[in-house]
Amino acid sequence: MLSLLATGILIALGLWLFGSIVLRAGGVVLAVGGLMTTAMTGSPAMAAASILGALAWLAGHWLFALRHHYFSSPLARRVFNDVLAPLNPTRRWGIPNVPPERRR
User: Fold this and answer.
1) Are 50 and 30 in contact (CB under 8 A)?
2) Cα–Cα distance between 64 and 35 in angstroms, integer?
3) Of 35, 66, 67, the residue nearest 51 (C-alpha)
4) CA–centroid distance for 26 within its chain
5) Which residue, 53, 57, 94, 50, is CA-closest to 75?
């Protein structure tokens, strides 16, 4: 039982440390490769792979923002601020520096 717990902790630590870069890089490769293969062959399976690649890319940026409190890509920041606002890991982290009586 202890070895299972230690394995789980090591996997969680590896995901925390390296998950964002692996998801972002793997997502880009999968999305671009899927789009190119879909354009050449018209394969619906590769179209689904390109969608999964885009989701992996977004998941990598979400994990990066959760760890570092900012987004590493302006495109990811725009997507999470405008389209996926409830999933934005950086919302409500700022401290308002405007006094309450001066807020609109």
Assistant:
1) yes
2) 25
3) 35
4) 11
5) 57
40-76 residue pLDDT tens: 998 899 999 999 999 999 999 999 988 888 888 899 9
| Largest pairwise CA distance in the chain | 62
**Interval 4-34: pLDDT, tens:** 999 999 988 888 888 889 999 999 999 999 9
CA pair distance 83, 88, nearest whole angstrom: 9
Question: With b meaning 16 or more CB within 10 Å and e meaning fewer, what string describes 80-102?
Answer: beeeeeeebbbeeeeeeeeeeee
3-state helix, strand, coil in the chain (%, to 5): 80, 0, 20
Alpha-carbon distance of 78 to 87, in angstroms, equals 12
